[in-house]
Amino acid sequence: MSIQAETVKQVAVLARLQLDDQAVPPLVEQLSNILKLVEQLNELDTRDVVPMSHALDMPIPERPDEVVNTNCKDALLANAPDSVQGYFQVPKIIE
Amino acid sequence: MANDPLYETIIGLEVHAQMLTRSKIFCGCSTTFGAEANTQICPVCAAFPGVLPVLNRELVQMAIKTGLAVHGTIRERSEFARKNYFYPDLPAGYQISQFELPIIERGELTLDLESGEKKRIGITRIHMEVDAGKSLHEGIQGASWIDLNRTGTPLLEIVSEPDLRSSREAGAYLKKLRSILRYLQVCDGNMEEGSFRCDANVSVRRRGDTRLGTRTELKNLNSIRNVMRAIDFEADRQIDLLESGGTIVQETRLWDANLNTSRSMRGKEEAHDYRYFPEPDLPPLVITRERIDAVARQLPELPDAKAIRFSRELGLSEYDAGVLTSSREMASFFEETVQQGAHPKTAANWITVELLGRLNREGLEIEQSAVTPRRLGRLIGLIQSGDISGKIAKQVFELMFETEADPERIVAERGLKQVSDTGAIEAAVDKVLAENPTQVQQYREGKTKVAGFLVGQVMKATRGKANPAAVNAILQAKLSG
Ligand SMILES: [Zn+2]
């Protein structure tokens, strides 16, 4: 399966990546090659193989329902690009 | 329209219920509502690089409880998945949710319709997911502010089948579901504070059609009343559109409760492509039969089972049993009243008529009642022992509501105790008979109806305190003597 330019542009939008038009053709080629590589798996008969989502065979760890974290607002806000009055500040979202 | 002759309305509901865990789903931050902005967050909440989520055990217990309560299948193996989208109140750029393998599948809920019929509503799935933070826009120039306190609060998303056929059924479904979650003590069900949220999928089709029409999704419904009004509005809008030759566009619409209308969100959100994939940071959740059985043993008695017990074992009408089990608080009030020795039917009457009537007038919930179950039970006890009449009891009840005093004290202080002493009643009867020779004559001529008048006179003479049964007996004896 080869990928179309439209798909590359759509994926870029979803990933919030800005692509100029010259960047698209090489990406079409590279992504198509990756898909071709993965498509080799189609040659195998996987009818009796249970789909695997995780390589690790371990149960999910569960923790007790306890509040152990205390207020560290200032340290977290210090890492933000912008903050005002205890809030993270971002460019206007609506209107 | 609820009952359009040509069209039927098809409704499916998606409920997001905040679970009452102390800490968040994947970190040890508090879930308390209303704290100062960003004081209940940590690097997991703020999605700092390198952090790992660790699942809250209590949330899994709550999900199993909920699944059992709606007769769902609890998957032996379920998975978390990433739902990818960008929004500033979702710092990770993805929401951890469940997609292909949710923890609960195929449940159901039974509605008691006003017609007296029961209707089964299918529940497609229930899955666990994280809540997002909150954005503030109003009054801020050129920017938005983000509070991440709510980020990571555990949610159960409960998705119904498109089995609902009217706004009334939708309302009944939400009330039933909320009541079950409250019985289980897993969600406070507060729609105004957003701990119980609902989106509605609505479509219409000509009666007789078997294919579903194009549906729209209604959002911003913050009360059951608004859910019902928005559904009616949307069904009417779709029918009008189809009747005038138009077509329905699949879209999300926002309800405006002030304007009583909805508007399209088209253009605001581009076609969603969430690109779900299994959450690499969380291995599959495996739930053993033993774990499910252990939770099942701790389940409280749920409203349906309680209602059946109230009517079969305690002799209540189905209607009273339904009212008295509509909330956990109401059911406990009734059960505590009965524990005081009150006859169940009498207790049911007093609660559904006198108490709920008074509470409704005052705009109070049953847990705010000034008359406690203990006091109501003792008031009923006074009627049962013959100490006061039912009529006097109503006076005492009003006084109990106003003064929060014990019924015995009110009866003693106001001298309301019923007179069962035969001598005193006989004296009163003799006096009334002497004063009303005409009626006595009429009675003896066969107009036995006047007995009611004479009883009334005796009651009046004793200021309502005479035992009515004793008055009747003595009066009858004297009149026929
Ligand atoms: Zn946290």
Gist of the model:
By secondary structure, chain A is an alpha+beta fold.
Specify the structural class of chain A: alpha+beta
Tally of individual helices of chain A: 3
What portion of residues of chain B belong to β-strands?
A: 15-25%
Structural class of chain B: alpha+beta
- Uncertain stretches of 5 or more adjacent residues of chain A: none
Cα(first) to Cα(last) distance of chain B is 68 Å
Task: Supply Rg of chain B.
Answer: 30 Å
- Indicate the mean pLDDT of chain B: 91
Q: What global shape of chain A is seen? A: flat
> If you compute it from the alpha carbons, what radius of gyration of chain A comes out, rounded to the nearest whole angstrom?
23 Å
Number of strands of chain B: 17
Task: Provide structural commentary.
The complex is a heterodimer of chains A (95) and B (481). The model of chain A has no long low-confidence stretch (mean pLDDT 90). The longest helix of chain A has 16 residues, at 24-39. With 95 residues, chain A is an alpha+beta fold. Chain A has helices at residues 5-14, 24-39, 73-78; strands at 62-63, 83-84, 87-91. Chain A has three helices and three strands, in the order H-H-E-H-E-E. In chain A, strands 2-3 form a two-stranded antiparallel ribbon. With 481 residues, chain B is α+β, with helices and mostly antiparallel strands. Chain B folds into three domains: 7-294, no CATH class; 301-413, no CATH class; 422-480, Arc Repressor Mutant, subunit A (Orthogonal Bundle), CATH 1.10.10. Chain B has helices spanning 57-69, 167-183, 224-243, 289-298, 303-312, 318-324, 328-339, 344-362, 373-384, 390-403, 407-413, 422-435, 437-444, 450-461, 468-480, and strands spanning 7-18, 55-56, 73-74, 77-78, 81-84, 94-97, 104-112, 118-130, 134-136, 143-147, 154-160, 196-206, 216-221, 252-256, 261-264, 277-278, 285-286. In chain B, helix 3 (224-243) links the parallel strand 13 (216-221) and strand 14 (252-256). The mean pLDDT of chain B is 91. At the A-B interface, helix 1, strand 1, helix 3 and strand 3 of A face strand 2, helix 1, strand 10 and strand 17 of B. Strand 1 of chain A pairs parallel with strand 2 of chain B. Zinc ion binds at residues 24, 27, 29, 41-42, 44-45, 152 of chain B.
